[in-house]
Specification:
This protein has five helices and twelve strands. By secondary structure, it is an alpha+beta fold. The longest helix is centred in the last third of the chain and has 29 residues. The chain is elongated.
């Protein structure tokens, strides 16, 4: 009787899981109405500058154009994440709509301004950000107007565009739906979704910045500190041995402060902070080994110094490999 009950329970649970997997997931974003006017949007980025993680903002200069068929003029747009509207510059291509040979209406804007972007710095200095410019029409909801990427023009930025200190990985347009969590006091309409087109520009810091400007000085400091274990463990060399890791510790503190001043005030540890914690642990282990070996030599006059030296050489190799392995785990995990 008991096996039958267990079997029936297992079959019920299995059937319930199959039903849940077969049911389509409910989405919070409604599909656009088929009768909505479709507008094809293209963009071309001319300049990108003043990336400011402290102020969570960046400046962009770009062209934006629209192709559509219908009575609604889609050029009356709102930049959702633009700040400092007083410093913005929006110039239309033409004062009137141009009708193309294929029957589409055409017009556009050249836009320049400052835009908000929340910079997350956990992966600094290997951080990657997707700068976004969110464009929508606040007058017509999703059932009246839909923005779609213009796939006929895939080159989204100037080929010579460069951003000092960053690698620009491309540029793309993505159609999204923006649902405000309020009815703005209009209880007759309720909450309405709006079509949203997002210009996305992924950027990343060069790997050479991490390796040459941040890691190379730290590795030199660590090697000089670990080098104290290579010095022959004699009672007369204790002061010379202990001075190397102590000096390395002070240098590491100043090196960490030099890059921390360039970061915004964040309440969490960035990747480079974790690298320095690992470096502090290595230097601390060197200091402890020198102190322990000095005390051991003081208490034991007949110690085999060559055997102790061999142990410290192995320890130095272990610390170097451990630091490298720890950094690989921090970077790739």
């Amino acid at each position: 009787m008991k096996p039958t009950l267990v079997t029936q329970t297992a079959l019920f649970i299995f059937s319930l899981l199959l039903y849940c997997a077969a049911c389509p997931a409910q989405t919070a974003q409604p599909a656009p109405n088929q009768t909505a006017q479709k507008v094809y949007v293209g963009a071309y980025v001319m300049n990108l500058y003043e990336i400011n993680p402290d102020a969570h903002s960046f400046y962009a200069d770009f062209y934006l154009w629209f192709r559509w068929k219908g009575d609604i003029d889609p050029t009356g747009i709102e930049i959702v994440n633009r700040i400092e509207d007083w410093g913005a510059n929006d110039e239309p291509f033409s004062d009137s709509v141009t009708v193309l040979k294929d029957g589409y209406n055409y017009n556009g804007l050249r836009m320049e301004g400052r835009f908000f972007h929340p910079f997350e710095m956990e992966r600094f200095p290997l951080d990657r950000h997707v700068l976004d410019i969110q464009i929508e029409n606040a007058d017509y909801p999703l059932d009246s107007l839909v923005y779609l990427p213009d796939t006929a023009n895939l080159i989204r930025m100037k080929p010579t565009l460069r951003l000092p200190g960053w690698d620009i990985e491309g540029c793309s347009l993505t159609a999204k739906t923006h649902m405000y969590a309020t009815d703005f006091g209009n209880t007759d309409l309720g909450q309405e979704p709006y079509s949203n087109i997002v210009l996305e520009i992924p950027i990343a810091r060069p790997v050479t910045y991490f390796l040459l400007k941040l890691m190379l000085p730290l590795i030199i400091v660590l090697l000089s500190s670990i080098g104290a274990l290579v010095i022959f463990p004699s009672r007369s060399y204790v002061d010379a041995r202990i001075s190397l890791p102590i000096g390395g510790l002070l240098t590491a503190v100043f090196l960490q402060q030099s890059y921390s001043d360039a970061l915004p005030d964040v309440g969490y540890m960035v990747l480079m902070d974790k690298v320095y914690l690992l470096a502090y642990a290595v230097i601390g282990a060197v200091v402890m080994e020198i102190i322990l070996s000095a005390n051991y030599l003081k208490r034991n006059k007949d110690t085999n110094l060559h055997a102790l030296r061999r142990i410290e050489w192995y320890m130095a190799l272990f610390l170097i490999l451990g630091f490298l392995a720890g950094n690989l785990l921090l970077v790739f995990l």
